[in-house]
Amino acid sequence: MKIEKVRELQGEELTRKVEEIHDQLFKLRIQQAIGQPAAPIKVRGLRKDIARLRTVETERARKQG
């Protein structure tokens, strides 16, 4: 997910997207635990998406107060 698209998301959409990506990451980790191959690139990408979303949340919180 590109940072431009992240910045377009509103407050609740941002939170919902973080939860959705956390769920995807959890499912991938479960697959790895039971021995199914999971793409490490996908895991890395999801972690980076979470970081982007959290960064935008922090930026907005600092602007407000």
What order do the helices and strands come in, and which of them pair?
Elements lengths: L2 H6 L2 H23 L6 H25 L1
Helix pairs in contact: 2-3
What is this structure, in a nutshell?
By secondary structure, this protein is mainly α. The protein is built from three helices and no strands.
Please explain how this structure is put together.
Helix content is 83%, strand content 0%. It has 3 helices and no strands. The protein has one domain (3-64): Orthogonal Bundle (Helix Hairpins), CATH 1.10.287. The chain is elongated and about 45 Å long. The protein has helices at residues 3-8, 11-33, 40-64. The mean pLDDT is 92. α2 (11-33) runs antiparallel to α3 (40-64). It has 65 residues and is mainly alpha-helical.
- The count of β-strands is 0
Strand content: under 5%
H/E element sequence: HHH
Q: What is the average of the pLDDT values? A: 92
Number of domains: 1
- The CATH topology is given as Helix Hairpins
CATH architecture: Orthogonal Bundle
Specify Rg, calculated over alpha carbons: 14 Å
The structural class is mainly alpha
Q: Catalogue the unreliable spans.
A: none
Task: Give the C-level CATH assignment.
Answer: Mainly Alpha
Number of helical runs? 3
Q: Cα distance, first to last residue?
A: 27 Å
Shape assignment: elongated
Helical proportion? over 70%
